[in-house]
Each structure stands twice: as structure tokens, then as C-alpha cells.
Amino acid sequence: FSCVFQAILIFCWVYVRKYQSRRESEVISTITAIFALAVALISSALLPVDIFLVSYMKNQNGTFKDWADANVSRQIEDTVLYGYYTLYSIILFCVFLWIPFVYFYYEEKEEDDGNTCSQVKTALRYTLGFITICAVLLLIGAFVPLDIPNKKNSTEWEKVKLLFEEFGSSHGLTALSFSISSLTVIGMLAAITYTAYGMSALPLNLIKGTTSAAYERLENTEDIEEVEQHLLRIKSKCRDGRPLSSRDRRALQQLEERLRTLRRRERHLESIEKSWWTKFCEAIRPLKIVWGVFFIIVALLFTVSLFLSNLDKALHSAGFDSGFIILGTNLTNPLNMLLPVLQTVFPLDYILITTIVMYFIFTSMAGIRNMGIWFFWIRLYKIRRGKTRPQALLFLCMILLLIVLHTSYMIYSLAPQYVMYGSQKYLVQLFLFVLCKSILFVFLLDQCIVTRTYLFLHKFWFFSAAYYFGNWAFIAVFLIGLIVSCCKGKKSVIEGEVDDDDSDMSDDELSAYY
């Protein structure tokens, strides 16, 4: 675990340093971003560990191992559960206290270069609002009723209540569960916005590649010549001393700004054309195409699996009042079929589930990087290599924290049986044994151990209902993003690196990347 932890920290450090602005970098914001990103990645690693532990306690013939008696298994379950609570408490601390405070501190620092004490007080005043929201969520979670009026046919709901009772016997903290579930819903919205788009944009960008730096530089030179000719024509109007009209002055100003942008593009393109990194990327172009095809196949596999899982819930669940929880698999999806097959060769199934988790994280990063950070229709920040402001990095890490919270439910939607029981088997008559399946849930309470992930996800039925509808929205956004990405042409080799609002000082950082 220490090696994994060190690898995560190294990755977070490299990732943050790659995108943060060298001119605006701050020590506290850098440490906060690295820590928040590391917490997100470590939290995502809990799911494979949880599945492995419940599976490891049983033999292949369905019997519990000698050391896995009732007390030991309960201790293992509690240890995993406390691990979730510890990391989730850290996430609450980051989302509601640490990240908002650091963000508002640097916002005040940009507006007022006065004394530090005043900036800290102002940041604390704004952060108090986030702390209040956290306190309200904890209070609601502590007193929210879980009992729902039963329908006439309450068979499914009675089984669901067993889930809640079993979770309560594991010392579940409902207040923390409610707060985390509330953040998970926000993470669901972020996943719909960024992850769904990233799953289509990332592979297609790898397949298409970028335009040639030499070709773009030639086009840029032609644009510079054209703008310079326009400038000369406008300036020629005032050679005899006549003043320019207001229309000509506005056009002159716009053309001068356009010329500055084109010249910055020229410097960037020249640096890229000469860089060793560009030559290396051209050499591995076939490998990028292979990875792009692989990623698009994986994305389509996920989408089909998610669609079949949601369709199964729509047709066979107990309905909205139970959170669309389904205790049997009626429509098998490809991923739910693949994982039990891989269970026969240790540890292929754990490698796959870990790969899926990391795939969601990296596609989320790609989606945020391509789209930038938006608040409804307002673009707040851009994520650009070597030019990302400290506030944007904090936003990026907060969004990733929220998306990671939702990742566990996404994995459950893709492979419900596997996430619930792992590779456990249970004994039946005449020493036969089969894979644990939720359709026999009442019988399996004593035969198989349910993962803490599953029980945590289904603490509140109304959040499960929100996740169900969120999955449909995720599928729709992915398909729309896939169509848009297919219709778009190749990206510029300096996509997002040069904008009209950049200063000429930003070109001083070219040598660090090209």
C-alpha cells in the first residue's frame, strides 16, 4: 500500500505542476490541490479493496475460510467501513472548509494586496457559508426518516429494508452518509457534464490527432500578412492629417489585438515545430491510434452495460419509492458477464475493476481539460498547460473529488452483482455451489457478505432514485458528445495555448514545455 500511496502522490504532483501557472503559482494552493487530488485517487482505490476482502473470506467451494469466523469477518467489514468514513470525512473537510478557504484567500489577495490578516478574515467569512451548508446536511442526515410507506406488493421493499437494517448494525453514521450522498449527487452532475463528454472526446482526439505545426504556421503567416494589409489601408486614411472615424478606430484596435494574438501563435508554433516532444509524438502516432480505438470500444462497452442495467431497473425494480433498487439480475450486461469469468484467474477481475475506476478518473480529467470550468452558461476558468490559475486548480480538484464519489455508484450500475458480492460462492444441497446472486438476498444474508460500498450507496432510497435518472442523462450526454466529437475536425496543435486575453508575458513560459 505504501508503494501505491507514493505513486499516487507522485502522479498528483506531476499533474498539478504540469498545469499550474508558473507566474501565479502559490505554495498553499499547490499543496491543497495535490492533497485533494490524492484523496480523490485514494478514495477510488477503496472499491477494489472492498470487493477483494469480501471475496477473500470464502473458498471456491462456498465455505468460509478457517480464519474468517463471525467475529473476524465483522472486524474486517468494520475496518473497511471506518476506512470509508475516514476518507469521506476528509473529503467533507476539503470540500466545505479547506478548498473554499484557500480559494477565497487568493481571490482577496488578487483584489487587495494589503495585510494578510484582513484577507484571512474575509476568506473565513465566505467559508463560513460552506460550513453552514455542511452542518445543515449533517443535521438533516441525523434525523431524516428512512421508513417509506409500503405498497400493496411490498416483497421487494421488505428486502430493501433488510439492507438498511444490516447497514445499521454495522454502526453506520447516517449524518455522514447523507452529507456524502448529497455531494455524490453533485458529483453525478459533474460526471454527466465532464466524464460523459471526456469518454467520447479523449479516444477520438487520440484517433484524429492534431494538425501539422508546419501547416498551421503557414496558415498563420498568411493571416498575419492579411491583417497587416488591413492595418496599412486604415492607417493610410489619416496620412494627410485627417482624423479617423470612430468606426475605423474600433477596427484599428481590433486588428492590432488580432495581430498580437497571431504573433503569439507564431512564436508558439515555431517552438512546437522545433521541439523534441513533437517529434516523439509523431513517432508514436500509430500507438495513439491503437489506444484511441481501445478507449472508444471501452466507452461503448460501458454505455451498453449502463443502458442494459438501467433498463433492467426500469422493467423489474420495485419503483421510485424504493430508489429503483433491483435485487435480481434479469437483463445481463456484457461487463457483468465478463467479471465472473475473469474471477477464475486471479487477479484479473481486480485488475479490470481498478482499470475501470482509473478510466473514469482520466476521462473526467480529459473532459474538464477540454471544456474548462463552467457555471451554467458562464465560463469561469480554463485548464491549460502551464497557465492554469491557482483558483482553477482548486476548482479542478474539487470537481474530481465529487466525481470520484459518484464513481462507486457508476461501477455498481455497470456490474451490480460483482460490486455487491465480488467472487463469493455459497453452498446449496449436495455440496453444489454457485455464485452469490442478489435474487436470493434473504437467504444470502447468512451465506455471503455484502460489500460496504453497496450498503453505503443504498442508505437513502431517494438518492438511489436520483442516481437512476442520472444514468439516463449520462448515456444521453455521451451519445451527444460522441456525435459532436465525430463531426469536429482535428484539434490545433496549440489548442487552448493561445487566447486573445493572454498577455505577451505568457510567452516567457514556452521553454518549459516545448
UniProtKB/TrEMBL annotation:
This is Lysosomal cobalamin transport escort protein LMBD1. The keyword Transmembrane applies. The chain crosses the membrane at residues 27-47, 82-106, 126-146, 173-197, 289-308, 350-380, 392-414, 426-445, 465-484. One of its GO terms (molecular function) is cobalamin binding. It is found in: Lysosome membrane. Belongs to the LIMR family. LMBRD1 subfamily. It comes from Nestor notabilis. It holds the Pfam family LMBR1. GO terms for cellular component: lysosomal membrane.
